[in-house]
Amino acid sequence: MLYGAMKLSIGGTLKLAFRPWAEGLENIPAEGPAILASNHLSFSDSFFFPAMVDRKVTFIAKAEYFTSPGVKGKLTAAFFKGVGQLPVDRSGGRAAGEAAVRSGVGVIERGELFGIYPEGTRSPDGRLYRGKPGVARVALATGAPVIPVAMIDTEKIQPPGKVVPKLMRPGMRIGRPLDFSRYHGMENDRFILRSVTDEIMYEIMKLSGQEYVDVYANVAKRQLAEEAKRRRDEEKAAADGAESARRAGEARGAQGAGSAGETGAPGDSGT
Prior knowledge:
alpha/beta; seven-stranded mixed β-sheet; 15% strand
């Protein structure tokens, strides 16, 4: 009931304002369970994705979206609850991963659509990063088909630092279902999990046209943050050095002026 109301109000507004396009909607089954595995470019993916799919899609979302303070935090929490997303505490390491898999299996066992971003977090630079094996674990534990999805241009609507979103047409490309039933029950084999996950990411890459990076996105984010900090530290050190040199120059100039005053022209001599 609440999902339908949220989809009608927010989804309708998004469609009217942004006119998003979608290809391959026929690849999503009209009924029965399936896993929708998508790239993750922007926070707005979580708005446009369910707006363009007729059936309810249940995602897992980081717990911070449900607990952030302030008016914006409350509105965000209300939205995610309204669209049926499930909170997962990502700070719990392996336990968080297990909780996410259990949530996904539960959605599939109810015969519903389970949405997941295999990268685990938003891409820091628009490229497609290595997928985490949770999507494969849910697929092999349940036998559900995996439908690759590519969100297109959602990161351009509201880039970091921009308050007002840009009115443009984002898109969504949906590929044909992938059948991994031949591996059913092998969700504890890490080599099979890696192979299945890589196959899913390859299909997403073909749909999105993104450059693929064989590194986890959270690792790339950390590396980029460390590099940015290193550059800031170098710039600060250079600025501090220049300021020290300027002050030293001023001090030498003042000292030179004082010495010149002490050795100035002698006074008149009497005759």
